[in-house]
Specification:
Residues 424-659 form the EAL domain. The protein is α/β, with parallel strands linked by helices and 659 residues long. It folds into three domains: 3-159, Translation Initiation Factor IF3, CATH 3.30.110.200; 282-411, Reverse transcriptase/Diguanylate cyclase domain (Alpha-Beta Plaits, 2-Layer Sandwich); 419-658, TIM Barrel (Alpha-Beta Barrel). It has 23 helices and 20 strands. The strands form four sheets. The chain has an eight-stranded mixed barrel with strand order 12-13-15-16-17-18-19-20, surrounded by four helices. It has a five-stranded mixed sheet with strand order 8-9-7-10-11, sandwiched between helices. The two termini are 46 Å apart.
């Protein structure tokens, strides 16, 4: 029973007990008063009549006239005169008077009145005894009428008390409801403070919960700052703030590690799956080398040289702004590197880079002879990182051979059977036909928890570009769909296939939604309508959005979380880690889980720096109630290290061995 029902029950019981007690006391007091008054009246009437008869002659007519004069007033039930020998000299008796008093009331509250007695004398001789009995039916009627008035009064008083009770309970319920909202906000990782109520007892509770919320908030801020500092210290160059060599190489591995392998589902279904789905499936690796850094350092000094290096990093950042998943790093003292996915021609970018560097040289007054050279290599998903770096070094050496301040681009050799964009016709028609003919399928791979049990299946979409043709991996067509603003129909198809899978299979399923779709209100509404038709399946559906898309469309993602969490879906961020310092913003949206990017996971059993970073990330995530899953786990050693660091689940090529 709820607290307010208990309070209402208490109020009702107290009011009822008060009413019954007061009613009973009032009725009994009134009955006692009526009995006393009737007895006194009987005594007074008997004495008065005895005195009157004693002064008159004692003949029967005179005595009868005196008794009749009193009896005819209608207030007496019986008047009699009895001689000393017990003989009745005269007597008048009235029949029972009809009243509106119920018999049950007379039985519960009977009125018993003692008769009045007085002696009649005759010349100082005892003549007889007169007995007067008042009519108690009239008193019973009076008692009944007063009872009705009491009941009406108590009903009015009860109604007024109830209204007052409602106002008082509302005054108590309002701050309690606010405190409940605060508690629910805490469970949703929202740090909400409330105003302190006027009620002293509730004020102390509200003050305590507000203090707790402030401490939790401050703790989350402190851990976020520590995580940010640790991330910068472990994975970033202290001078420029760019990714250091180790972190940059992990990102390069992520960019090109996308080969498909065959895995067996723990539930028996077999399907091919990618070791790791990533949007960075092709692009360029740009390597820039400063040729005379020692001379610059001697001329400008350490502080100015560091400023110059930071400006070089800022130029690389500005020329690649707006390119998703670009990665900038400083490999050593004089070498800077840039990964740029999803571009087919880097010539314009390298021209802009050269122009910015020459402008920088003119501002600093440094001898510009041989200051920089740039080499760029085109890579494709599946190329080996070592070969890509070798190609970049070759391109850089070629640029150095051309003279000062030059750049050169080469293609890395690769054997790939993937279709190039535009080689099979118009992509808009390809997507339209594939959607209309439903040439899509989901391939699954397991995500397991720390104990090796299946946490959920992760679904990756495949598409047939041509009828009866081969199945393209998501990396081969999703970036093109994003550029053509066609991710909405594809994601809608993925959700339909996911719901069909959940209808026919047990367990839970995770799907990836493009950042472009979550900001497309038309398809967002269609997705919402589709999920509302299957409310029982929503609780088994995990929906994740890539990190780079979340922060590109932050407000749209906030609304997306609010809408689809209300449907019962679990919302997560995939490839997380490069915006780890923004975790608090995500927690305020009620995020359920994170999938940490494979670039942080690769070789984690040997990377002490990333171990500290990921442990801090897990601690902060668990404080905020967020599940943490590692992507791209390849070996059992990595799995053990990840579980020890606090990860709730893992996935990747090594899952079969780990489970």
């Amino acid at each position: 029973m709820s607290l307010f029902r208990q309070l209402w029950l208490t109020v009702i019981l107290i009011t009822l007990a008060s009413f019954l007690g007061s009613f009973t006391v009032s009725i009994l007091s009134m009955r006692s008063y009526l009995e006393q008054q009737l007895h006194r009246k009987n005594v007074d009437s008997a004495s008065s009549l005895a005195t009157s008869i004693s002064q008159l002659s004692k003949d029967p007519v005179t005595i009868g006239v005196q008794i009749a004069a009193l009896f005819d007033s209608g207030q007496y039930e019986r008047i009699s005169i009895t001689a000393p020998d017990g003989k009745v000299i005269a007597e008048r008796v009235r029949e029972l008077i009809d009243t509106t008093v119920p018999e049950w009331f007379s039985d519960i509250f009977p009125i018993s009145v003692e008769a009045g007695h007085a002696q009649i004398s005759d010349n100082r001789m005892h003549f007889g005894v007169i007995k007067v009995v008042s009519n108690d039916r009239m008193a019973q009627q009076v008692l009944w009428d007063q009872t009705g008035k009491l009941i009406i009064w108590y009903l009015v008083a009860s109604i007024v008390s109830g209204l007052v009770g409602v106002l008082i309970l509302r005054g108590i319920k309002r701050p309690l409801a606010t405190m409940v909202d605060q508690a629910e906000a805490i469970t949703e990782r929202h740090f909400l403070t409330i105003s302190e109520p006027r009620i002293p007892e509730l004020r102390s509770i509200a003050r305590a919960t507000n203090d707790m919320v402030r401490r939790l908030h401050n703790r989350a801020i402190e851990e976020t700052l520590q995580l940010e500092a640790l991330n910068k210290r472990m994975n970033h160059d202290p001078v420029t703030g760019l990714a250091n060599r180790g972190h940059f190489m992990n990102r390069l591995h992520e960019a090109v590690d996308g080969g498909d392998t065959v895995h067996s589902d723990t539930g028996g279904a077999i399907g091919e799956k990618p070791a790791e789905e990533t949007p960075m499936d092709k692009g360029f690796l740009v390597l820039m080398r400063i040729g005379n850094l020692e001379e610059i350092n001697e001329k400008l000094g350490r502080s100015s040289t560091n400023g110059l290096l930071r400006q070089v990093g800022a130029i690389m950042d500005s020329i690649s702004t707006g390119m998703p998943n670009r990665v900038i790093g400083r490999l050593n003292g004089s070498d800077f590197a840039l990964i740029i996915p999803h571009i087919n021609d880097a010539a314009q970018l390298l021209n802009s880079f050269s122009a910015e560097l020459i402008a920088l040289l003119s501002q600093t007054g440094v001898d510009s002879v041989g200051f920089y050279h740039i080499g760029a290599v085109r890579y494709r998903r599946g190329d080996r990182p070592a070969e890509i770096l070798t190609g970049a070094d070759t391109a850089l050496a070629t640029a150095q051979g051309k003279g000062a301040h030059t750049w050169h681009i080469i293609d890395a050799s690769y054997a790939s059977t993937q279709l190039a964009a535009g080689s099979i016709g118009d992509w808009r028609h390809i997507f339209s036909d594939a959607v209309s003919e439903d040439r899509f399928k989901l391939v699954l791979y397991p995500v397991v928890d720390a104990a090796g049990a299946l946490l959920h299946q992760e679904a990756v979409v495949r598409m047939q570009a041509v009828r009866n043709g081969g199945w393209l991996a998501a990396n081969d067509f999703i970036p093109i769909a994003a550029r053509l603003n066609l991710t909405g129909p594809l994601d809608l198809t993925v959700v339909r296939h996911a719901l069909e899978y959940l209808q026919s299979s047990a367990g839970e399923l995770a799907i990836n939604i493009s950042a472009e779709t979550i900001s497309d209100w038309n398809f967002r509404n269609k997705l919402e309508e589709l999920l509302r038709q299957q409310p029982d399946l929503c609780s088994r559906l995990w929906i994740e959005v890539p990190e780079y898309g979340v922060f590109r469309r932050f407000e749209a993602f906030r609304d997306f979380c609010h809408t689809f969490r209300a449907l019962g879906c679990r919302i997560g961020v995939e490839h997380f880690g490069h915006h780890s310092t923004e975790l608090q913003k995500l927690a305020d949206m009620g995020l359920h889980y994170l999938k940490v990017d494979a670039s942080f996971v690769h070789g984690i059993n040997q990377n002490k720096n990333n171990q500290k970073l990921l442990k801090a990330l897990c601690n902060l995530s668990h404080t905020l109630g967020i599940v943490v899953i590692a992507l791209g786990m390849q070996t059992e050693a990595e799995c053990k290290a990840l579980i020890k660091l606090g990860f709730d689940g893992v996935t990747g090529p090594g899952v079969k061995d780990a489970s």
